[in-house]
Design brief:
The chain is of the alpha+beta class. It is built from 1 helix and 9 strands. The longest helix is centred in the N-terminal third of the chain and has 28 residues, at 6-33.
Length: 157
């Protein structure tokens, strides 16, 4: 098509714009459907009773996280970190002074630091929930750190 006037030029430019927006929309949809590996850090300070609750970000609705790796401990691998850890999936923040129900426990650590590796369906966090780490017997006032690597998928993906 040959542009002979301003109107034809505007139509051609508009068609180009629509094509670009459609391509961007398709790429956005594809990236939200495609599984993505995501690393998330979190931290908490131990309270006076020696408990620290680390809560990772809540999984968005319509998504699910398969936890592939977890590391928890002090600021570095060599940092002394007293306490034991219980890893669980929960909705809302768990009261650190209330025991975690056994049916929610996904893993535990008798000593810190701890690193855990998981297969795709071992630790699943559905939309609206979060992975949480409760450290008991912690040093009051010490900051505890954790990081997870998850496979972020659309629900049913």
């Amino acid at each position: 098509m040959t542009c002979t006037g301003t109107g034809d030029l505007l139509i051609t430019k508009f068609d180009t714009l629509i094509t670009a927006v459609s391509s961007l929309r398709a790429a956005t949809i594809a990236s939200s459907v495609r599984p993505q590996s995501v690393r998330m850090p979190a931290q908490a300070v131990a309270d006076a009773s020696g408990n620290a609750l680390i809560v990772f970000a809540t999984v968005p609705g319509g998504r699910v996280h398969h936890v592939r790796q977890l590391v928890v401990g002090g600021a570095t691998w060599g940092t002394a970190a007293a306490g034991t850890a219980v890893v669980f999936v929960g909705t809302g923040a768990q009261d650190p002074d209330y025991p975690v129900p056994l049916t929610q426990v996904a893993d535990s650590a008798a000593t810190l630091p701890k690193v855990g590796f998981y297969l795709e369906d071992q630790v699943v966090v559905p939309g609206g929930a979060s992975l949480q780490v409760l450290i008991t017997g912690a040093t009051s006032g010490q900051t505890y750190y954790a990081a997870i690597r998850v496979l972020d998928l659309p629900l049913g993906g």
